[in-house]
Structures are given as C-alpha cells and as structure tokens.
Amino acid sequence: MSDTSPAPAAPVIEFLGVTKTFGDHTVYEDMDLQVRRGETLTIIGGSGQGKSVCLKMMIGLLQADGGQVKVDGNVVGEQGPEGLRTIRQRVAYVFQGGALFDSMTVLDNIGYALREHTDMGDEAIYDKARACVEMVGLPERVLQSLPASLSGGMRKRVALARSIAIEPEVILYDEPTTGLDPKNINRISAMIMKLQRELDVTSVVVTHDMPTARKVSDRIAMLYEKQFPFVGSAEEMWHSPKREVRDFIHGTLREAEARHGA
Amino acid sequence: MRRVIERFGAIVLSGLDWVGGLTSLALRSSAVGPRRPFGVDDIASQMVEQGVRSLPITSFMSLFIGMILAVQFGWALADFGATMALGDASSLALVRELVPTLIALTVGAKMAAGMAAELGSMKVTEQIDAVAALGADPIKKLVWPRLVAATLATPLLVAWGNIMALIGGMLIGDWVYAVPAGYFYETYVDELAPIDYIQSLVKGVIFGYLVGLIGCYQGFSTKFGTEAVGVSTMETVVATSICVIIADFYLTMIFL
Asked: What homologous superfamily does CATH list for A11-261?
C-alpha cells in the first residue's frame, strides 16, 4: 500500500539540538523543531517555559548557547549585522504588547521598517501604510493617531499592520490574543488566518490559549520540560495519549471554562 | 566577617561589571555611530530635547551660582576694603569649576535620568527589541543621537551658564557692594586666560559624553517591570554624580 499524502513542505526555520540558558535556569536542552514553509505552527506551553524565547531566537534577538537555529539554511547565530538585517526583513515579529513606538504616530510606526529597508518616499509610504491598516480592518484616520490613544485590540492590529508592511515571508506572533476580550480574540485569530491566506506567509504563533491554537494552526508544537515532546495537528493533539499533552489540554480547558464562567 | 568580605566582593564585581558594560557601549556606539546615515535629524531632535529644553534651568542655576559666589566673596573682601576685586575673585572659580560642574551635576543628571527613563520604558515594553526586529540597529538609532546631542549640548549650556553667572555676579556687585557693572565685567574678563575658557568647555564636553553614556547604558540595562524603570532612573542620578565628580577631579589635575 503506497502513501498518497503529499510530502511535507521544506522547513523555513529549523532548531537543531538547541540549548538556551539564563543564568542557572535552562530553558531549552537539545531542542529540535521545524517550521515548514507556508504553514501556521502554534507553539503552546505553560507560562515561563520559554515560548517567546523560541521566537526571539528565530530572528537573532536572543542567541542559542548550543546547537543551531537556521532560517532558510542560514545559521542565525553566525550572521553579522547585514545578515541579521536581511533575516529581519523576511521574518516579521508581532510583539506581545504591540511594542509600538509611543512617540510616533501609527503612520510613522508602520513606515519605520519601510524607511529602514527601502527608498520609498513619504507619499508611497503613506499609501502602503493605508493599505496595511485597511488589511487589518482599521480605518485610514487611525494613521494620524498616537498608539496611546488606541484600545488594546487596535494596538495589536496596528502591530500586525507594521509587521506586514515590509511584505515578510514569515510572521512570528508572540501571544497575539493575550489580554484581549473574546470578541477581539476572535478578530485577531481571523486576522492571522486571513493574512496567511492572502499573503501566503508562514506563521508561527506563540500562545497558551488552546481555542486560538486549534483555530489557527496547521500544526501545534507543545513545549514541555525544555523540549517539544509533541508536534502535530490539532486533531492529533486532541487524541494524543501522552500524559503531559492531556494534562495541558485539560488544564487550559478548565482555564477557558473559568474565564467564560466569570 | 566572611559575609562582609563576600558582600564587599559582590559590590566590587558589580562595579566592574558596570564599568565593563559602559565601556562596551561606548565602543559599540563609536563603531556604528559615525557611519552613514549619520542620523542628523535624530541628533537635532535630541539637541532640542536635551539642550534647548534645559536652557531655563541652566539660566536660573547659573545666575544664582554667580550671585551666591559674589555675595560670599564680597563679604570676605569687604573686611579688607577690597570689594573692587570682586570680579577678579569670582571669575576663575566660576568659569573653571563651579559652572561646568554644577551644570553637569544638576542639568546633566536631569538629562541622564530622562534618557534612562525613556530608554528603560522602551526596554520593558519591548520597543528596543522592536527597533532591532524591524531591521534597525538600536545602538545607532537610540544611543548614538543621545550621546552626540549630550556631548554637544552640555558645553553649549556651560558657555551660556558662564554668561549668566557673570551677569549674576555683576548684579550683586552693583547692588550690594557698589561695584560698577562695567568695572566688574572688565576685571572679571581680564582675570581669565584662554585656557580657562578651554578648560570650562572641555569639562562640558566630557561631562556631556558621560551623561549621555550613563543615561543610555542605564536605560538599556533596565530589568523587567515598571519598578525597574524607577530603580534604573535613581541609579542613573547617583552614577552620573559620582562619575562627574571623579572626572572633574582628574580634569582639574590635568589643567593645573
């Protein structure tokens, strides 16, 4: 009997035997992970286990102490300033709190990377920024606002608009739905799927929110005890016999029930 | 006894770590800063923020330093009937020492604390990481403009402060000790040699560089949480004061 399922796409990001420590605290030990081109991979795990560290290593904001992190075959830790700049032009990062520059308008926030990486003039940057905010469902008038005047959900969407302005191949989302109400959680989840569909990007989402993970993911990687003991589809995860996976699912379900019940 | 030695050792190590970090930042900023684009707009905006906005406090401080010193010297000189020497007596102390040092200790500490608070807030809200993630160099974008602006603005503020201190001395000389303003000015300026002006400005440049470097380093090394921003800002004021005083001692020794 031959296997008719399509071969998995080539990895765009790879972790090979990665070790990462902060002082006495080891976050990763001999950790392996692959992110395939075009997929949405969600990294889940408990708080403080190093989910965001994983994303930061992908664009060289943090370096691995051992092993290799590769983006398109290039070892991130071996890149000089120019190499990192190229990687960061292709891999965008949406920070947990948005990390919008307080002193700049939304237009300048979105135009920041365009000014860094391109020779676009003010008019072209404005047009691009308008297209980006419209793509994330915000009106044009928001371009002249300061981040402090926006709601939490709007700030997240502006951060999303800023990340897509340079037309990246990969988008890294760090806890995109944390701190949002259910309506905005659904909106951001839909936005992730829409960008995936329309821009054909690879997405890596870090979250501890199981419903979001199930909704947006092609595959889920569960971080536990410094490694990823489970990587597979949401369906496979749901039916996984592994104790740590079952514990995590039941724990997050109880958390979700408590949140909705409150 | 052992705990005391351990504690002392930890303080020494942490001090060395701090000096090492500061030196590393100085080297990195001098490596990436002078490359194109020079960031003239960012430097100009920081000059306005740190220099122009510090003019009122600099004017106020320097005017009163000149007035206080004139009152003190006039009081002493009056015993010898030598109040007409008020200009000569005040000039060296003000230009060589008091104006540059007190401006660095007050206005400089304010500038450094402002930088530490701003960059520290950016650090805890991941804005510094965002600068890097968007493909820019945080040292070039955030440290270099502040360092250059502080290094350029402080000697200019010192020069302005010297003028205000002279005016303060003239006012007290004229009103309290009946020393004509024109005479005070002539004796004040006659006493000063070019090296005194140079000393004043060189101190301004070096104090300004220290202020910028310490403010940026403290901001970049802020730990997590809003409380850390407060701690970092407070430490900046202390570190700036200590470093300015130590630098002042060595500069005075060099110029003597």
From this structure: P-loop containing nucleotide triphosphate hydrolases (3.40.50.300)
